[in-house]
Amino acid sequence: MLELDNDSIGAIEIDALTEAGNIGAGHAATSLSKLLKENVMNRSTKSVLVTLDRVPDALGGADKVVAGIYATFSGGLQGGILMMFPEESAATLMRVLGKCEIEDRCINEFQESLLSEVGNICLCWYLSAISKMTDLELIPSVPVCAYDMAGAVIDLSLIQLGKVSDKALLILTDFQGEINAIQGIFLMMLEPESQKLLAAKLGVG
Amino acid sequence: MRVARSPARLVCVGLGSCVALALWDSSTKIGGMVHIMLPDSKLCISKSGVLPGKYADTASRAIIEEMKMHGANQYVTVAKIAGGANMFRNVSPDMKDIGMENVKAVKKSLKEMHIRLMAEDIGGNIGRTVELDTACGDLIIRNIRGKTVTI
């Protein structure tokens, strides 16, 4: 079996993966700009290596309410990708795209479907950018959506990762719109073997 | 994984499919809480070994040992559990059951250790924040829709 520990990942590999995340999120932001008819830009991309129990803190707190859209991917790389919109941004998406409000912090079927679709578009753009860069085929699963505390939304993805590692490399990008202050966070988690493969494809493995 | 004595409160924030196991010894008012992610430490294929708090079987044992070190009495210690939800309605079947598998595994461990399960708030599709009051053994469960349950 290959090295299955995140500890062995080096600073240069982390830099390369951060850049991949940045490019992926850049494409996703462009797609969101078209949907919202306003300019949505990446603000920052960073990668942090944290133990699994620290992940919610690294994302701004386990109790913050978010809309999370999650898909796994397989093919050339294995992992999961989660997109999170903070409560206010989810409300903005609803107003602009769905002409409705989220009541009592409870999303209905239409709202769930709308969030999933926005997430799906962004996630697919993100993945296709990485796929083009690396010449690896990435096949995303059908995305699923939840509207709840960040800790609860993210724990399923951590469980998946937790089977192979005690640490997670989080590739975080947040972006912001000009008019509607849409904020979003992408979180890509690769299985340790895939991290190495991606870094190698980017020329630093 | 944390252990504390009355009047401290132990909190687990934002549980989805994970399970919070709360143990409480009424004689010494020592409480312990652990945030469990996976059912079985045999699933661990990480090279750095098993992190005990992560798996139901190892976490239950680790937390009672820690409590005993602080003077708790296992024979009067009781358990309450919360969590094990399925956050995503349309997720693939292998991921759908992880919450319930965690719950099952915790119950099995408790049985093996002869610790009585007093109450539970499990399943559903909603996230939970739980708080153990070590003064009285109450487990207070909150969700984002403002509903609070005490078990």
Low-confidence stretches of chain A: 1-5
Structural class of chain B comes to: alpha+beta
Q: Average pLDDT of chain B, to the nearest integer?
A: 89
Which stretches of chain B are poorly predicted, pLDDT < 50 over at least 5 residues?
none
Could you tell me which chain pair has the largest interface and how many residues each side has? A-B, 39 and 35 residues
What is the alpha-carbon Rg of chain B in Å?
15 Å
Quote the beta fraction of chain B: 25-35%
Round the Cα radius of gyration of chain A to an integer and report it.
16 Å
Which range best describes the helical content of chain A: under 10%, 10-25%, 25-40%, 40-55%, 55-70% or over 70%? 40-55%
Summarize the structure in words:
- The complex is a heterodimer of chains A (205) and B (151).
- Chain A has one domain (8-201): Chemotaxis protein chec, CATH 3.40.1550.10.
- Chain A contains six helices and seven strands, in the order αβαββααββαββα.
- Chain A has helices spanning 11-36, 55-58, 87-98, 109-134, 150-162, 192-201, and strands at residues 40-51, 65-75, 79-86, 138-140, 144-149, 167-177, 183-190.
- In chain A, strands 1, 2, 3, 4, 5, 6 and 7 form a seven-stranded antiparallel beta sheet that branches.
- In chain A, strand 2 (65-75) and strand 3 form a beta hairpin.
- In chain A, helix 1 (11-36) packs across helix 4 and helix 1 packs across helix 6.
- Chain A starts with 10 loop residues before the first helix and ends with a helix.
- The model of chain A is unreliable at 1-5 (pLDDT under 50).
- Chain B is α+β, with helices and mostly antiparallel strands and 151 residues long.
- Chain B has one domain (2-150): 60s Ribosomal Protein L30, Chain: A, CATH 3.30.1330.
- Chain B is built from three helices and nine strands, in the order E-E-E-E-H-E-H-H-E-E-E-E.
- Chain B is globular and about 45 Å long.
- The model of chain B has no long low-confidence stretch (mean pLDDT 89).
- The chains are: A alpha+beta (205), B alpha+beta (151).
- Chain A binds chain B through residues 1, 3-5, 7, 52-53, 56, 61-63, 65, 70, 104-106, 112, 141-142, 144-146, 148-156, 158-160, 162-166, and chain B through 13-18, 35, 37-38, 43-48, 51, 53-54, 85, 87-92, 95, 98, 125-129, 143-145.
